[in-house]
Specification:
By secondary structure, this protein is mainly α. It has helices spanning 14-49, 55-80, 82-101, 106-134, 137-169, 173-176, 178-192, 206-223, 225-229, 235-257, 271-286, 291-301, 306-334, 338-355, 364-380, 384-392, 398-431, 446-450, 454-487, 507-511; strands at 4-5, 500-501. It folds into three domains: 1-202, Growth Hormone, Chain: A (Up-down Bundle); 205-259; 265-512, MFS general substrate transporter like domains (Growth Hormone, Chain: A), CATH 1.20.1250.20. The longest helix has 36 residues, at 14-49.
């Protein structure tokens, strides 16, 4: 039978571990906040620089760069030790933030966002991998749930903070504020985090990293092609898909021969790893991918102002906090994570099925209750894929496995954002009705909507409610695919510190 020992934690002093964890969370808050904080400041930035057609790229450039480098950072941490890799990522992110804050045109801003993403991807992966070094598997479940809370808190606070800061200090402040925070996190890690030297000589698979980055980028660009090229199927989008397929096939050949592959292909022979990847992709699609669309839905169908819609997100975050904390505690005690994956995706599937039936004029309290249910759903399984793959992978591949899961979550979110956007655009294009006082429904801001006559406002709300119905059904389908994968997981029990890790007996073995 296959056995391995759970390694001892990197830092044994509990107080020092907590301080370190605080610095890690500061870095993570900074990297994830940047994904959300820009959303409310975007109209102001476009007002200054123009180029409305490149609006989406301020967010996409960051997410793409973030996703592309995640597996590379996981590998670098396994090879060189996590401390210096993580510090380099924070440094790149901080420099990128400074350049964003000093940007002179839309193009410089997009380029600086790519630089930020190159650092942000490293921060995200390194944090989960450092957590694996700091805490033993069961205790890790509790701390991963705190990490997930920080992720979600940044999602909830981001839009409000971005709007407030750009009103008070101008939009540049939302980027420049990262510079002092980044320097504090760097100083804290330099002093507090011990350097654990890896036992092997680093050999980096640059070809594999580049091919994986190109494959990821091709997938996101292909799903975005309706906005980029005006149609989902166009010569450019077909060329991008073909290029992506060539990159993916070449990547498999390169990884087979590489002495230190970016994502070791033997991970894919492990059914637990594959199922958790599917759960992670669907989780990204329904959790991260949905945030901006839920905000748009609330503002267009209920007539709520941006700040009032933001308050409803507190219910979503509240549900998330409850789900995440309780799941972290119970996984710590029982060592079992499969039930949480099943419960989580069931909650989200029910929430989106209900959302698809909502019409304009539905009581706000009912919508709030559904958002809370969705929040609890996301929270319950927030840390399951990371804990699961870290337990399933061998000690030498923990970084690569963590990177793959985090990448799949971001990739799922990027692809879903494009799919949801295409659904809304096609639904609104079908309409073709003219509403008094509305020149172009897609350029209608919440402020403009509030000033419309009552009948026009009702017509807009009805149109959007009808357009969102297929979007929510698509999200429900994503949740169901994730649920099927969760049901197929093996009933693994996580080891305690110093225990040997035994695979669970299969039902056939147990019956004997």
């Amino acid at each position: 039978m296959d056995m391995q020992f759970a390694p001892q934690p990197l830092v044994t002093d509990p107080r020092r571990r907590l301080i370190l964890f605080f610095f890690l969370m500061t870095a993570m808050f900074m990297a994830t906040l940047d994904n959300q904080i820009v959303s409310t400041a975007l109209p102001t930035i476009v007002g200054e620089f123009g180029h409305l057609e490149r609006f989406g790229w301020i967010g996409s450039a960051y997410l793409l760069a973030l996703s592309a480098v995640m597996p590379l950072y996981g590998k670098l941490g396994d090879l060189f030790g996590r401390k210096y890799v993580m510090m380099a990522a924070i440094m790149i992110f901080t420099v990128g933030s400074a350049v964003c804050g000093l940007a002179v045109s839309m193009n410089t801003l997009i380029a600086a966002r790519v630089l930020q993403g190159l650092g942000g991807g490293g921060i995200m992966v390194s944090i989960f991998a450092v957590n694996a070094d700091l805490f033993e598997p069961r205790e890790r479940a509790r701390y991963q749930s705190y990490s997930s809370l920080v992720l979600m808190a940044s999602g909830a606070i981001g839009p409000v903070l971005g709007g407030t800061m750009s009103d008070l200090f101008g939009w540049r402040s939302i980027f420049l504020v990262n510079v002092p925070i980044g320097l504090i996190a760097l100083a804290g890690l330099a002093m507090m985090l011990p350097y654990r030297k890896p036992h092997r000589r680093p050999r980096i698979d640059y070809a594999g990293a580049l091919l994986l980055a190109l494959t990821t980028t091709s997938i996101v660009l292909a799903t975005d092609s309706s906005e980029l090229f005006g149609a989902l199927v166009s010569p450019q989008s077909i060329a991008i898909v073909a290029f992506g397929v060539v990159c993916a096939v070449t990547w498999v050949f390169v990884e087979r021969r590489a002495p230190e592959p970016i994502v070791p292909l033997e991970l894919f022979r492990n059914s637990t790893f594959n199922l958790l990847l599917v759960i992670s992709i669907m989780g990204g699609a329904i959790a991260i991918g949905m945030v901006n669309y839920l905000a748009l839905f609330l503002q267009t169908t209920t007539g709520l102002s941006p700040s009032a819609a933001g308050l409803l997100f507190i219910l979503l975050t509240g549900g998330l906090v409850c789900g995440s904390l309780s799941a972290g505690r119970i996984i710590s005690k029982t060592g079992r994570y499969k039930p949480f994956a099943i419960a989580s995706l069931t909650c989200s599937a029910i929430a989106f099925a209900l959302m698809s039936q909502i019409h304009a004029g539905t009581p706000i309290a009912f919508i709030g209750a559904i958002m809370m249910l969705h929040g609890i759903g996301i929270g319950l399984a927030q840390q399951v894929p990371v804990i699961g793959v870290q337990n399933a992978a061998s000690a030498r591949d923990v970084g690569a496995a963590t990177g793959s899961v985090t990448l799949s979550r971001m990739g799922g979110a990027s692809i879903a954002i494009s799919i949801y956007g295409a659904i809304i655009a096609s639904q609104l294009n079908k309409v073709g009705v003219s509403i008094p006082g509305v020149a172009d429904i897609e350029q209608l801001t919440p402020k403009m909507m509030a000033s419309l006559p009552e009948a026009s406002r009702q017509s807009v709300a009805d149109l959007y409610a009808a357009a969102f119905s297929p979007l929510f059904l698509t999200a429900c389908a994503f949740a169901v695919i994730g649920l099927v994968a969760a049901l197929m997981l093996k009933p693994v029990q996580l080891p305690r510190a110093g225990e040997t890790i035994r695979p669970q007996p299969t039902t056939a073995e147990a019956a004997e």
